[in-house]
Amino acid sequence: MISSPELVFYAIILKANIFRVVCVLILIAKSNLGLADVLKLKDGASVSGSIIKENDTSLMVDLGFDILRVPKNQILSREKSTKAKKGDALEAMSDKIYSRVRNLPTRSVRELVKEVGPATVQVRTSSGLGSGFIISPEGYVISNNHVISGDYKLTVVLYEQGERELRKVTFDKVELLAQSPLFDLALLKIHAERDFPFVPLAQSNALEQGQEVFAVGSPLGLERTVSQGIVSVRNRVVESGMTLIQHTAQINSGNSGGPLFNRQGEVVGVNNLKIASSAVEGIAFAIPTATVVHFLENRDAYGFDPRNPNSGYRYLSPAGSVKKSTPQKTHTQ
Fold first, then answer.
1. Mean pLDDT of 304-331
2. What is the distance, to the nearest Å, from the Cα of residue 40 to the centroid of all Cα atoms in its chain?
3. In terms of C-beta density within 10 A (0-12 exposed, 13-18 middle, 19 or more buried), how is residue 205 classed?
């Protein structure tokens, strides 16, 4: 016979073991929050879950609460879910203000624009405007340093899809947190009591020559303009010493700071330069996301203080200098 204290002791052990089992089950459930397989059946129904086993005649689908056997001769199509879930996040730690997502499916530009468009913004200053994109639901925005042009009284404009047309939402409480003339990057923060649409950053070193990309921005103030192209060269060193992505997506004045996307809806670069000449077409440049991530993770080193702005020196061209006739690389703002 077990005494009362021993019964209590065994009860505590039992509860602890149950707690461990529950924790393991929760971890298993969370690990299965990745992109689900979607099976469209011939009778019009669909099944969504993780494929855990497959043979010549059937698929075994984990629905989360049960295992379902689906005969292959009843399956019309099989594809990955188009929405990334929490389990796919590679980097979503509390000290990071950006995210990365894995296993996103390749989709058409037409489909992707509907998702990434709301996170692409206009950045307005007292002297002009450029583009930018939101990287977190808290309202952190990436743009070009030359878009800011030393002006820290900024406005960010979002374009949200209404029932029939885009609805303009203007935010005047925008803080310049960090900037780097060397990398031509700026980090802004929209102060508002709401969550914002945002886009993930890609691994830019995974880009390949010839890969399809598309740009979204506000060339000449024309909001949410989309242009498509390919990666011409993944790493191109320009006169400033920066290593940029060379691509063929059309960008113009106002595209600066806007995102360059891959066909998975991830940002692979920040548009900032083009070759401006009547004899040159289809030569544009973007800052790789590897540079953007370095800038974000070391943002304290590039922190902006309006009382002591860390914007570096700006040198003007000598008076009376002769313009060269050769094509010049220019910012797109």
1. 55
2. 29
3. exposed
The position carrying tokens 């929405």 is 83
List the domains of the chain with CATH numbers: 4-28+36-80 (2.30.30.100), 111-190 (2.40.10.10), 204-302 (2.40.10.10)
Catalytic residue among 88, 99, 143, 146: 146
Side-chain half-sphere exposure of 85, counting CA atoms within 13 A: 14
Separation of alpha carbons 69 and 29, rounded Å: 20
* For the chain, counts of helices (H) and of strands (E): 4, 19
71: nearest Cα among 51, 85, 82, 55: 55
Which one is catalytic: 184, 227, 247, 253?
Answer: 184
Question: Can 184 be counted among the known catalytic residues?
Answer: yes
Decide: 254 and 288 in contact? Cβ < 8 Å: no
Interatomic CA distance for residues 12 and 66, integer angstroms: 31
Q: What is the pLDDT of residues 56-90, one digit of tens each?
A: 888 888 775 567 888 888 888 887 654 444 435 54
For residue range 134-171, what is the model confidence (pLDDT) as tens digits?
Answer: 999 999 999 999 999 878 789 999 998 877 888 899 99
Angle at 287 between CA 282 and CA 288, to 5 degrees: 110
Q: Please give the full DSSP string across 273-284, using - where no structure is assigned.
A: EEEE-TT--S-E
Burial 233-243 (b: 16+ CB within 10 A, else e): ebeeeeeeebe
Q: Is the pLDDT of residue 111 over 70?
A: yes
pTM of the model: 0.67
**Is the model's pLDDT at 283 over the cut of 80?**
yes
Question: What three-state secondary structure class fits 112?
Answer: helix
| Residue corresponding to tokens 């059309």 | 250
- With a cut of 80, say whether residue 97 has pLDDT above it: yes
Q: Is 331 a catalytic residue?
A: no
Which pLDDT score, from 0 to 100, does residue 4 have? 47
Q: Is 127 a catalytic residue?
A: no
Burial class (CB in 10 A: 0-12, 13-18, 19+), 196: buried
Range of lowest pLDDT (157-166, 230-239, 272-281, 283-292): 272-281
